Structures are given as structure tokens and as C-alpha cells.
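Open question from group meeting: does this chain pack into something compact, or does most of it stay loose? Before anyone orders reagents, we agreed to write out a predicted structure and look at it together. Recording both the input and the output here so the notebook holds the full record.
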Amino acid sequence: MKKIMKKITIYFWVLLGFLSCENYLHKLPLNNPSDQTFLSSETEMKMALVGCYSGLNLKFHNLTFFLPFDYASDIGYDRNTGELQQLGQGASDALNPLVLLYWTRLYSSISKCNYLIQNMEKGKQNVSETVYNGIKAEARFLRALYYSYLTELYGDIPLITEVLTLETSQQPRNSKKEVVDFIIKELTDIESVLSIENNPISGHATKGAALAIKARTALYNERWNDAISSSSEIMKMEGSQYILEDDYPKLFKYEGQTSKEIIFSVQYLKGVVTNNPYGQFASRLGLGVSGKVPAYQLADSWECIDGLPIDKSPLYNPKDPFKNRDPRLGYTIAVPGSEFLGFQFETHGDSLKCWSYLTNQLVNNLEATHAYATFTGLLMRKYANIEDRLDANNCDLNSILIRYAEILLIYAEAKIKAGQIDESVLEAINKIRQRPSVNMPKITTTDPTELLHAVYRERKYEFSGEGLRLFDIRRLKIAEVVMNQPLLGRMKKSYPSKAPRIDEFGTAFYDDIPIATQGESADFKMRLVDRRIFNKDKDYLWPIPYIERQTNPTLTQNPGWE
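C-alpha cells returned:
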């Protein structure tokens, strides 16, 4: 049934390839819809709507567009030399191709939404009111979603809600506040029109999805009451439409795509519209390229099972650093000594052989000897599933854009910020920590500062590898600290003799732990993988792409990017 539903949705995506091109009228026979008649029927409206959804298929290195963001943050590294690595290093400029890609593709998707919203009136009499309002609401949802990413990446941006003409094409930037006001109003207006039914594999926007994106946008922009009210509405649907999945790692596997924890996800279908998280995240032994890897600092972030950070817990053993740790560490990251994709994962320099569970024999250990094996000694486990091993370029594992756990943490953070600490705040946090597959100690403090830091750490533990970290370090204004640290990998033949210092945000600092200099052996020192520079005066925003300012002189540049 899942495959059928996905096929229907993605079939329309394919059809839109003919309808979304600027010159599509030249490619179709004369008896096909013209610009004057198109959108006069329900079928045509639905085809155009699928075109609006196709913007979700924006990918970079064949990853769904939001997943790469983590690898330009403090928790990940992109081994591929290029535009994403440059953004992480603080070595980018307004000519960066990735900066241009996101700007143009997101605005292109908004343009499709605007066209449908503005022109569907011509066919209103041929469509039931329910269908008409539903299609329009989904297009407005997508437009708001695309704007939510644009404004968080670039700040002030042009707010375009109509089809542009040659005369109106050069639009100036609107303030971020204006854009956020628009997003929240749009999502408020449509939430009652969208379906309340949560079907994670339908690919369609729902009431819960609109509330969720409104809650996230409100949180990111310190609209605490909006964040509380929107998240509360979703929480009222817990049990009927939304749950917290008991089996945490299941969420990132094929069998978890129907989980009611998922509020909205990007859909894929093998052989039609696919992605390739396996190729980027899998080990060399698993036929992947280990292109995007977790920083070692991330592995040291998770608490011990007593709820204490590793520099405070008596359960932490430097010689066996991944023992007695929050289970989400092992669910998120492939750590040395664990089984990963059918092989014993070990990056120790003397581990020339490792065990293959696929053949039940020892094989050459590429993770210890291959020049392009994981640079940090770790790999990302989320979205890397052995089912894709032999057909990595044809994955159809959906990518989760937002899930119920995030709603609970949005609610908790907004309530704390609004000075409304009560039992519901602790309950929201602890539901996540105490799901059966995690079972970490409850948070009990009611001190506002301590409780906020607990939420920030929880977001890091819960969502690493899901594309949220870049936005968190920006909005919390900690990027200037965490990004100005060397990005580290494990010692090749050992582990540090003591724990690093862990701050209140869950960030690891290796003040008294030896780090190899460039070109120095990292056998018994932390490996220096990357040096980054974060300029607080400019790097909290991406630059407006150079070519966009050349073609539209009304666009001003973000501070520091001239």
C-alpha cells in the first residue's frame, strides 16, 4: 500500500517536469493546456500542486536539502572539498554555488506556488469547494515552508506572493520580521482547512504539519506564545494522530516510515525519485564513501546513563568511552567496536582485519587502511540501511522534515522562555528521555537556566544528523564559540586518557588533551580534521548570491559579505 501511495504522489512529480519548465508550451502539442486555460480542472490543479511539492526534492550530494546543513555546523564535517565544506570553514563568499542553489531553487518553488494560488480561480466552478480549498491550502503551506528556510538562511529576503512580470521582477528585501509574520499568518489561516489525518507516507501537508512549521518558525524567532499555542494544539492530538515512537532507531529505517511520530517527510520512490543517504554515510566496507561524517566532539556530547556529562560521571571510562552512554549515541553514530552495515566497525590503526557478518569471515579493514575512510573515526548511522547496500544510488527512504519529538521540545523551550515553567514542561522533556529505547533519567530541575540548557542539550542528542543543528547554533548565538574550535577525529590507536570538558550546551572542549598538529602522527593524539573560522559579524547569515545582486540591484548584501 505504501508503494502505491508513494507512486501516485511521485507520478505527479514526474508529470510536472513537463508543466513547470518556463517554455513548456513549446514542448507540448497544441491540444495540451495553454496558459489561458491551464488550471481549469481538478486534474490540472492537482498536477500544478505536485509541481509545488517538487521543491522538496531539492538535493545536495543526493541528500534531501536540509540534511547537509549539519555538516556545515559544529557536529559534522563534509569530506568532499567544495561549497559545503567552505561554508563550514568560514571560507565562503557570495559566489558559493550552494548559496546560489538554495536561493534559486527555493524561490523557483515559491514561484510555482504563487502561480497556482493566483490562477486557480479560473477553474473554481469546476471543482468542489472542499477540493479547491484543500489544494490552495497545501500550496500556501509549501510556500510558507520554503520561506521559513530562506529567511533562516539569508535573513531579510524579498517576500513575493504574486507572479512576477518583467516590470515587477526586481524586488527589494523585506525584513525578516515581515517574512516571519507572513509565514505564521499563512499557516494560521490554512490549518483548519488541511486534513487532520496524519499519514506520514502520503506526502501531503496536514493540519499538524502546518502547526508544526508554525511552531518551529515561532521558536526560531522568539515568538513564544505562538510556539506554545501551536505545539499545544499538536500535543492535544497525541495518541490519535501523533505518538512518540518507542523504538527510536526505527524512525530512520524503512520499517519506520509509517510511524505516527513523523509529522511531515519528503517522499521518494525507487526508480523514479530517489536519494542516496547510504552512499554518503556508509563505510568503505559497506560500499559507501563516508563523505559526511560526525565530529568526534559530537560523540562526546551524550551523557552517561546516570544523566551526567562524561566529565562528571563516575560511569565514564576513558578506555571504553562509548560504554554506559545515552543509547541515542549508538543509534545516531557508528562507533568503533560496533556492528555497522554487516561489518565490525573499527578504525584502530592496527586493525588490519575485521569481521564480516555477511560472510562470517575476516576481511581487509578498509576503515583502518583506506585513504578516504572516515576522517573522524566515526560514521553517521541514521539513514544508512543495509537494504540499500547494493543499489545505493536508488534509495527511496523518506527524509523526516519534522517529527513529534521536536514539537515537545519546542513546547518546553517556549514555555521556559515565556516564564511559564510547570509540570507540563518537565513531562514534555522526559517523555523523550524515557521512551523505552532510550530510558534516560528524568530531568527534575525547575531552575529556568538549568532547564533551558537541558532542552538545548536534548535537541542535540535527539536530532543530530537531521539537519537542525545549524539553525540551533545560530539562534542560540553559540556558533561563534563552537565553530571556532578545531574539528576533531579519534586518536588512531588509542583514546584520550580523560574526558574533555563539557559545557552547559553539551559542547566538548579538549583543553588539556593532546591534538596532533598538521602533518603530525595522530596515533596517540586527537586527529585534527579541520580548522574553522567563524566571524560573528557575518557568518550568522549566508550571503545574498552574487549573481542575484547583479541582476537585481535593489538587493542589498548581508553585513560583512561585500
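Observations to bring back to the group:
The chain is about 35% helix and 10% strand.
The first strand starts at residue 59 and ends at 60.
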